[in-house]
């Protein structure tokens, strides 16, 4: 089975747990996901099976959108509600205007410090593993991009915000830093991923429903075709001869269709599509109108 699914992950299981459940239901070992969600977070988790797992690195690079609930007055060891309180601060002066006024420092490309409990490696070991052993390590700053951050509601001491951000951004860190920015303390009290790339929560499949469909063989209607999973990548429409060349790892000369968003920006990858609509390969440009297969996903008939 080569397929991609947008799952509506419930609160509770880890992303690894979701992969394990899908693996068991599908009876297939090759399963991966594009973008970790913490146990307390819910929402869109893109999961790939079979040959589609080779696309995970491209799917992970897509931007993501979240609805977050931030509780002011307390910081925690994990920067979310799972951790122990580490600092309290008065939040009586915090209001919606103060929060919205602080957003300017968070928009655009910024330096962000990941949480102490995170999967970042320092000295070859994960920060969360060090933190659980009581070893205090300051996470190195990372450059991240926050495309949009907006206040949805304020119900003291909690704010609901929407965030659209690039790969590697920690919403937990946004919560912690937003607390400091308004002269208080804060942690992430709830998180729901509403979009991952082009996969929206409105079209995501509940995990239980997908497991049932995988077991009874009715999963096809829930699957996203590999050729349609990355619409941000332009198309290179291959003829039969080019399909054979790409399948054999040979470069081809071809024009790429305009990007789906109409921006016309330069790209470092494109989708090589066969006449029958199959995704043959992920291509990278090696010259004007010349493409080399970076990953071959289907061979010529």
Explained architecture:
This protein is α+β, with helices and mostly antiparallel strands. The protein has three domains: 3-62 and 198-226, 2-Layer Sandwich (Pseudouridine synthase); 64-189, 2-Layer Sandwich (Pseudouridine synthase); 231-296, Roll (Archaeosine Trna-guanine Transglycosylase, Chain: A, domain 4). It has helices at 15-26, 56-60, 96-102, 127-132, 171-181, 207-216, 240-247; strands at residues 3-9, 31-34, 41-49, 64-72, 74-76, 85-88, 108-112, 121-122, 125-126, 142-155, 158-165, 186-196, 199-200, 205-206, 235-237, 252-253, 270-273, 279-287, 290-296. The strands form four sheets. Strands 1, 2, 3, 4, 7, 10, 11, 12, 13 and 14 form a ten-stranded mixed β-sheet that branches. The protein is elongated and about 70 Å long. The two termini are 18 Å apart.
Topology, element by element:
Elements lengths: L2 E7 L5 H12 L4 E4 L6 E9 L6 H5 L3 E9 L1 E3 L8 E4 L7 H7 L5 E5 L8 E2 L2 E2 H6 L9 E14 L2 E8 L5 H11 L4 E11 L2 E2 L4 E2 H10 L18 E3 L2 H8 L4 E2 L16 E4 L5 E9 L2 E7 L5
Parallel strand pairs: 1-14, 3-12, 15-17
Antiparallel strand pairs: 1-3, 2-3, 4-11, 4-12, 5-6, 7-10, 8-9, 10-11, 12-13, 16-19, 17-18, 18-19
Helix pairs in contact: 1-6
